[in-house]
Amino acid sequence: MMTKGQKARKEIVDTASSLFYQAGYGVTSYQEVAQACNLQKTNIQYHFKHKPDLLSAVIDQRIDEIRLLLEGWSLACDTPYNCIEKFILMIEGNAENLSLYGCPMGTLTDELGKSDPALQKEAQKMFDLYLRWLEARFRAIYPPKEAKEYAQQLMVMAQGASVLSHVYGDPKIVIKHAKIMKDWLATVCETAR
C-alpha cells in the first residue's frame, strides 16, 4: 500500500506525463502541474526540486509501463507474427491521440533533442525497449542483421504515420497506414504465420 506521500508523487508524475504529452515539456510549468493536481507549487518542488527531475520521473514511469506492456504481449501471443502485430494494433488503437498530440515518445524526444540532449538520451530508452522487443520477435524468423532492419523499418512506418496524422490532425492517416503495416508484416512474415 502506498503512503500519502507516494500517492501524491504518483499523481504529480501521472499529471505531468499527460501535460507534457498534450502541451509539451518546455511550455508546461510547475504551476500548471500543481493546478492540475490541486496542489501548491511548493508541493511539486518538495518531490521534484527541478523540472528535469520531474521529467526523469515521467520517463522512468513510461519505461516501466512499456516494460509491463511488452511483457504482457510476450505472454499473450503464440507466434512472433502475432506479437509484432500487437505493436501495430497499439498504433492503430491510438489513432485519435496520435492525430491530436503525436507520439508520446516521438514528440518528447524530438523536443528534448532541441533543448536538452542529455535528457533526450534518457527518453530514447523508450524507443530502445520497443526496438529491442521487435527485433527479438523478428529474430525468431530472420538472422540478427535483418531482424534489426525489420524492427527499425516498422518503427519508422509507425512514427511516420504518427507524425503525418498529427500534422494534418487526421486519425484516418494512422488507420490507413496501420493497414499498410499489417500488409507489410504479412509479407515479411509469410513463412512464420
Brief descriptors of the model:
193 residues, mainly alpha, 10 helices
Give a description of the structure:
With about 190 residues, the protein is mainly alpha-helical. Helices cover about 85% and strands about 0% of the residues. The chain contains 10 helices and no strands. Helix 2 packs across helix 3 and helix 6 packs across helix 9. The N and C termini lie far apart (about 45 Å). The model has no long low-confidence stretch (mean pLDDT about 95).
Q: Quote the average pLDDT.
A: 94
β-sheet strand percentage: under 5%
Instruction: Write down how many β-strands occur, each being a DSSP E stretch of 2 or more residues.
Output: 0
Number of helices, counting only DSSP H or I runs of 4 residues or more: 10
Q: Looking at the structure, what is the overall shape?
A: elongated
Distance between the termini: 43 Å
Q: Can you write the helix and strand succession as a string?
A: HHHHHHHHHH
Oligomer: single chain
Major sheet summary line: none
Rg over CA atoms: 18 Å
Low-pLDDT segments, ≥5 res = none
What is the gist of this entry?
Helix content is 83%, strand content 0%. It is an all-alpha fold.
